[in-house]
Design goal:
This protein is an alpha+beta fold. 32% of the residues lie in helices and 39% in strands. The protein has helices at 14-26, 66-76, 94-103; strands spanning 4-11, 32-45, 48-62, 85-88. Strand 2 (32-45) and strand 3 form a beta hairpin.
Length: 105
């Protein structure tokens, strides 16, 4: 059984989020990617508190593909410091996790 991860990033448009999602799946870096939004992000950047509309991309992948997925996000993302956060999947249905493993192979 794989060590599954969800990897999240955000971007400032639905089109950019969908492009990141599609590219990650096409490159077999993730079995699936979900785009949701818009969300309102409030954050500190370069000494100021900012508010922005963003779209989240949630990739479903395996720990073995994390480095390649992170490199992909960094290459195609236009933020200076994109959010890239991985969370381990501690439990999941066997069938779903097997599907994830097949789709990223």
């Amino acid at each position: 059984m794989i060590q599954a991860l969800t990897v999240r990033t955000t971007t400032d448009s639905a089109a950019k989020a969908e492009a990141l999602a599609r590219g990650g799946v096409e490159e077999r870096l993730a079995a699936c990617a979900q785009v949701s939004g818009p969300v309102t992000s409030v954050y500190r950047w370069q000494g100021a508190v900012e508010t922005a509309r963003e779209w989240q991309v949630l990739f479903k992948t395996a720990e073995s593909r994390y480095d390649a997925l992170e490199a992909y996000i960094r290459e195609y993302h236009d933020y200076d410091t994109p959010e890239i956060i991985a969370t381990a999947v501690v439990r999941g249905s066997a069938g779903y996790l097997e599907w994830v493993a097949r789709e990223i192979a």
